């Protein structure tokens, strides 16, 4: 064992402490183990061989986008951080996002931190994200972060931002490189099986157990703060500590048609601007007044593209209740009024009077799509398509207009968007303080006080966005806020007060707490309620209970514990 540790230390850059060297090396080896047999062996050793008494300031459960980003934020804030990923590789969804190009965020220059703008991007969680997106970690800060890590981004016409390399490996390398330099310890194949809060410890700590899928070993770790960021797999851990979970249902999916004529005739055809409205089947409850506008892609099974995906996200709950059966109403010309469509068709009966209806249209619609929608689906429509434009009667023009602006498309079923799978649901926001992405619960007491050392980020929360980089943006923002908060509160709670020289002008009986908290002895002679109540709390107990600082008065509980301290922020 000693030989292996010496080997690890010898491979570290000069000037780095042995512990930090092993931590950084663990990240690098885990990332390179797929191509280097020696690194694979050492990486497995770093992941599995550890002391039963291993302790960290912060443990991050989940090595996805939010988890890794949160781990980096916590480590840069000075915390020792362990990140546990249950799969064989971290950042799996980052790798496949955008067809392997990684739509890392949306255009920061067009971002508006208003309630309406955020609500249009996030069907669920918009109100809770608004403050953090506006002031804690905005899209502008996200772009600056990646550029500082050497990633150049480009913005496409629809606002989606990609690395200029068009390769998700660029983003992965930047994240893992930042984690390595910050000293994050990243372990893969480390599925957490148990999370418990030890309120009897001094100070109280979390205990986690995780198993290795490859070696079957079980390991334990203790920490001052935990960040859950694993999506649905962490819901059991959160529920075990008393948090309510909103049931998971799919979001961001394409619609599968009952009749495949449109798909067979027009598969692969895209339209830059359509409007889709939703009509649910009987038994699925009242049809919501939901519609979506944007580009549409016709597939061999149905429809996809931003218009369909956005509609599926905002109507996710209603569609699940209806069993994913109903009908879409397709408007191919949303920029025109009904009268405008009729007028354009009538004008074309003159300008294009010699052309067959099925072969020409005045709107520039793709030929296959035009023929399938305007001239198909019934004997009357097919008869219209066989005529010349100059032969159409007024009633036929109006019927053609109706088909173009209100084509019914019955659907039954759904398909995932490429290889990506997004859900809505998760830890209920009622149990989360959205300003810090931290739990509101004290284990055993229910929703009474804020528990300041359990944090959430990413898909574990009940938040989901539409396509275009918004889901990743919520990961970066919640990860940064939660990771920074976890480091701060872990530092404040993990050590006892440490005597230091008093600041200029401060009382001689002033102490400093690690993490930026100050404990000042109360003068008994001052008397009054403030001194008496402040004397009931120790710094550790106050922070463990999650009491806001400065302490609220009067306090709800008499806790006669020495020393007589009040707490203020440095």
From TrEMBL:
Keyword Flavoprotein assigned: yes
Coiled coil region boundaries: none
Keywords, alphabetical: FAD, Flavoprotein, Signal
InterPro entries on file: BaiN-like, BaiN-like_dom_sf, FAD/NAD-bd_sf, RsdA/BaiN/AoA(So)-like_dom, RsdA/BaiN/AoA(So)_Rossmann
Stretches assigned to the RsdA/BaiN/AoA(So)-like insert domain: 266-422
Keyword Amino-acid biosynthesis: no
RsdA/BaiN/AoA(So)-like Rossmann fold-like domain segment(s): 57-484
Cofactors required: FAD
Signal peptide: 1-17
Pfam families: HI0933_like (PF03486), HI0933_like_1st (PF22780)
Matching NCBIfam families: aminoacetone oxidase family FAD-binding enzyme (TIGR00275)
PANTHER family, sorted: OS12G0638800 PROTEIN
Name this protein carries in UniProt: Uncharacterized protein
Organism: Emiliania huxleyi (strain CCMP1516)
